[in-house]
Write a structure and sequence with these properties.
three-stranded antiparallel beta sheet; Rossmann fold; 17 helices; about 35% helix; alpha/beta; 15 strands; about 450 residues
């Protein structure tokens, strides 16, 4: 943060302390306990996509949301329980599966005892009963929306205008028209934040990567946002947060952002040898053939394994070397843009790419691979991997590593010693349910993972 920004923050927070500042929804709704000497953290708001929302196991569920990285940051900063408000979803959660029947909405995934399945379905008419904080009178503190793109942060107000058509997560997280039919970024600004985390851009690439056929959008076709377009939107987001918060509240917030991890760090993208030797298993009775020579096999390919019939995987379930080059070159381009934009504005960047790449092989191994390959019991395997059952999103203690990455930026800048509070035993992939195993992985479970990005 630049010296001028620090002086602006100090002056604004001094006014608040004296009772002469601008009242924000936060200050009139409940008191925020601010750690001594850390007035910059008085009103923390998070914006972003599924990673910010605390999405894990293919959906939103209070068990996972309670360990979102923004919640862990808020807890470490001293926010009282319940004061950092999230759009919490009661059991069985809201997943991203298309059940095939609009009358029902799918849950999150869980370990059934032998594979991955959906916990259940909720009649769509009863979904509002799952929303635990739907009547909260101001926009949420955590405004992360699963599936959100960079364009969505600037322009989306509900599922009718989301970039991925019909993204219902926008409806119950932004709750428009209650707050004036404004976007995620506008809701954040209207809260008068003093600290903002903004992690965005992942879905601008993942939509292409998870399709198995990545292509940079050329104005007509493609599923990856071109770097030049991303740069314009990304810089616009950072500038809008700073300038409009200053205009509305009288101070410029401290902003922290993060870059984009390589797909090689997520077990959703399995090297061919891992898919065949570990995930399919040495005892798989058939030779697996492919439409293209794969460098990575996508996680949903597991639902195609059939012990009674040979499998020929379509190109949509693999990435060949040229496709990997497209995706990884976009990761490099986006991260260069993020670094330059942040440096020009005095914004701290959590290097998520380096952090995830630096995990051990076991930390990046899918829970399913640990059980048969290494013979660990469920609890031990769950404590070893940092990823949830969907293979893209961290589990609860994986989000702890992300939270600590942001907290380390604060600690380095302010000489503090904040630590993420999560217990390593916090992720339970069974969700406390007795095993009722299907004979194979439920195809709808893998659809839940694909649907979020496409």
């Amino acid at each position: 943060m630049t010296k001028s920004r620090i002086l602006i923050m100090v002056a604004a927070l001094a006014l608040l302390a004296s009772g002469c500042g601008v009242d924000t929804p936060e200050s009139v709704t409940y008191p925020v306990t601010v750690p001594s000497g850390a007035g910059y953290f008085a009103n923390y708001i998070a914006i972003g996509n599924s990673f910010t929302a605390g999405f894990q196991d293919g959906g939103l569920h209070v068990a996972g949301q309670s360990y979102s990285y923004p919640q862990q940051i808020a807890s470490a900063l001293g926010y009282p329980a319940g004061s950092f408000v999230q759009p919490l979803i009661n059991h069985p959660g809201i997943g991203s599966t298309d059940t095939g029947d609009p009358a029902f909405t799918a849950s999150v995934l869980h370990w059934t005892g032998t594979s991955i399945g959906l916990i259940g379905e909720t009649p769509t008419a009863e979904v509002p009963n799952l929303l635990l904080a739907s009547s909260w009178p101001v926009p949420y503190s955590n405004l992360g929306v699963p599936g959100a793109t960079t364009n969505d942060i600037l322009n989306c107000t509900d599922s009718s205008n989301s970039q991925s058509p019909g993204n219902g997560y926008f409806d119950f997280i932004l709750r428009n028209p209650t707050f004036g039919n404004v976007t995620m970024i506008d809701q954040a600004i209207n809260r008068g934040p003093t600290l903002v985390t903004c992690w965005i851009g992942n879905n601008d690439i993942l939509g292409g990567a998870t399709s198995g056929e990545p292509a940079v959008f050329d104005g007509v076709n493609g599923n990856i946002t071109p770097p030049s377009v991303f740069q314009t939107m990304y810089e616009g987001i950072l500038d809008k947060i700073a300038a409009e918060t200053m205009l509305k509240s009288g101070w410029e917030p401290m902003i922290m952002t993060a870059n984009i991890p390589s797909i090689s760090s997520a077990p959703y993208f399995m090297p061919q040898v891992v898919f065949e030797a570990i995930m399919a298993g040495a005892g798989y009775p058939h030779t697996i053939t492919y439409e293209e020579t794969p460098e990575y096999v996508l996680f949903p390919a597991l639902s195609f394994l059939d012990p009674y019939n040979p499998v020929d995987l379509p190109a949509s379930l693999t990435l060949d070397a040229a496709e990997v080059d497209i995706v990884e070159s976009m990761v490099v381009a986006y991260n260069d843009i993020i670094a330059a934009a942040a440096a020009a504005r005095g914004i701290m960047v959590y290097d998520a790419n380096a952090a995830l790449a630096g995990m051990t092989a076991v930390q990046k191994t899918h829970f399913l691979a640990l059980l048969p390959a290494a013979g660990y019991d469920v609890a031990t395997a769950a404590s070893m991997t940092e990823f949830s059952l969907d293979g893209i999103h961290p589990n609860s203690h994986g989000y702890s590593l992300v939270a600590q990455g942001f907290l380390d930026l604060i600690n380095g800048a302010f000489g503090t010693e904040f630590e993420a509070p999560v217990d390593l035993g916090s992720w339970d992939p069974t969700y406390g349910l007795d095993p009722t195993p299907p004979t194979a992985a439920a195809p709808e479970a893998f659809t839940a993972i694909e649907r979020l990005f496409n």
